[in-house]
Specification:
This protein has 221 residues and is mostly helical. The chain has 7 helices and 5 strands. The strands form 2 sheets. It has a 3-stranded antiparallel beta sheet. Strands 2-3 form a two-stranded antiparallel ribbon. The longest helix is centred in the last third of the chain and has 31 residues. The protein starts with 7 loop residues before the first helix and ends with a helix.
């Protein structure tokens, strides 16, 4: 790779360091059997997976391909949009080497429509983009200035979060009166948030159920 006046080579050094840190994060997250988090995903591991989502950036530097184990990324040309993994977009944006074009769903219009759909579905969940919570949080942290009507978008996301979590709580509360719970279109983050509580609750339920059965079987006829 050649060095140029825009600092492309220096950018590559920074990017390679970030990639090494991400690789360390991945290896620590993977359990011995190859699954993430052993029995279930933990929140940092969900965020790690979200950082592989593709986003569009507009570089302000020139560089050839960055080479990673997962493949080459580039070339980078000033003011020419390019799609890159979220973790790379964050690395470059923090060093003011690019701006981020937010995903089409991270807009006031899209989220307003999704909120209305969520409100109309009383016992179901509207389909949201993959990792929408994690991607939005990361972009607000490092590239809020690149998001149009950022405060309105942030407010709409909060309303959607609150409504969806309220539905999840209601679904879990009704579990005792039903043999099955239907929660479609949940994100990985949402599933990871309720899984520990739900699994523990079901374990307690089965322990009590077995205790009741044993009590009836041991009772005199």
């Amino acid at each position: 790779m050649r060095q140029d006046t825009d600092g492309g080579a220096q950018v590559l050094v920074v990017v390679m360091a970030a990639a090494a840190a991400a690789a360390g994060h991945a290896s620590s997250a993977v359990a011995g059997d190859g699954t993430y988090g052993g029995t279930h995903l933990r929140m940092p591991e969900v965020e790690f997976l979200a950082e592989e989502q593709q986003v569009e950036i507009v570089p302000n530097f020139e560089a050839e391909h960055f080479r990673f184990i997962g493949g080459d990324i580039g070339p980078f040309r000033p003011q020419r949009p390019i799609s890159v993994p979220l973790w790379l977009a964050v690395t470059l944006r923090k060093r003011q080497k690019c701006t981020v074009n937010p995903p089409i769903w991270l807009t006031k219009e899209f989220l307003t429509q999704r909120l209305e759909e969520e409100q109309a579905l009383r016992q179901a969940f509207t389909k949201m983009p993959d990792h929408f919570q994690e991607v939005a949080a990361i972009l607000f942290e490092c590239a809020a200035a690149d998001i149009q009507e950022a405060e309105a978008v942030r407010s709409l996301l909060a309303s959607i979060y609150d409504l969806r979590y309220s539905k999840m709580r209601s679904g879990l509360a009704n579990a005792k009166d039903s043999e099955a719970i239907k929660m479609n279109n949940l994100s990985i983050m949402e599933i990871s948030a309720i899984r520990p509580f739900f699994v523990d609750s079901m374990d307690s339920f089965f322990v009590l159920h077995e205790a009741v059965d044993e009590a009836f079987q041991g009772a005199p006829g």
